[in-house]
Amino acid sequence: MAMETATNDSVRLRRATADDESFLFELYRSVRAEEMAAWGLDSAQQEMILKLQFTAQQRHYDIAFAGADHQIIILNEQPAGRIMVYRSESEVRLVDIALLSEHRGKGVGAMIVSSLIEESRAASKPVTLHVAKDNRAARLYERLGFQITGDTGSHYKMEWWPKD
């Protein structure tokens, strides 16, 4: 899928491969940077914790969402993020979407999620996701028409349903 942002940035997706492992770790580090800085740990401790958490997340996704579509978001021919989508008979689950910090807030994520909504609309299935309550993406999902349907304490379960 090739797309273009309002600023004429070229966006496309490509399947993630084992060669993307180091990029995916750097992406994970980027997503967690503010949180890790607040902990006050030295860089070696941060690195150790990040590697453990990254490995645990990857294993969880492999087990809980076996067969998910894992793609790298390419912006102007450079890796900029990732999206993982699990499609079942009953839903399209947005498992994870993340962008490097320098690409956040520019409409790339909204464009990709909107594309997922259009796919879901055509299939007459809901899009479901979980998002941390303090993640600014929760506001994006609300703007795109997602409704909060559950609360785990730290995360919201959100759903978008096609209109009849």
Give the percentage of residues in beta strands.
25-35%
* Helix-strand pattern: EEHHEEEHEHEE
| Rounded mean pLDDT score | 91
Strand order of the largest sheet: 1-2-3-4-5-6-8-7
Distance, first to last CA = 26 Å
**What structural category characterises the helix and strand content?**
alpha+beta
- pLDDT under 50 segments (min length 5)? none
Shape descriptor reads globular
Sheet with the most strands? 8 strands, mixed
How does this structure look, described?
The chain is of the alpha+beta class. It is built from 4 helices and 8 strands. The longest helix has 22 residues, at 43-64. The mean pLDDT is 91.
Task: Provide a short characterization of the protein structure.
By secondary structure, this protein is α+β, with helices and mostly antiparallel strands. The chain is built from 4 helices and 8 strands, in the order ββααβββαβαββ.
Which secondary structure elements does this structure contain, and how are they paired or packed?
Elements lengths: L1 E3 L5 E6 L5 H19 L3 H22 L4 E7 L2 E10 L4 E8 L8 H16 L3 E6 L4 H7 L3 E5 L3 E6 L4
Parallel strand pairs: 5-6
Antiparallel strand pairs: 1-2, 2-3, 3-4, 4-5, 6-8, 7-8
Helix pairs in contact: 1-2
Task: Offer a few descriptive terms.
globular; 164 residues; single chain; 8-stranded mixed β-sheet; alpha+beta
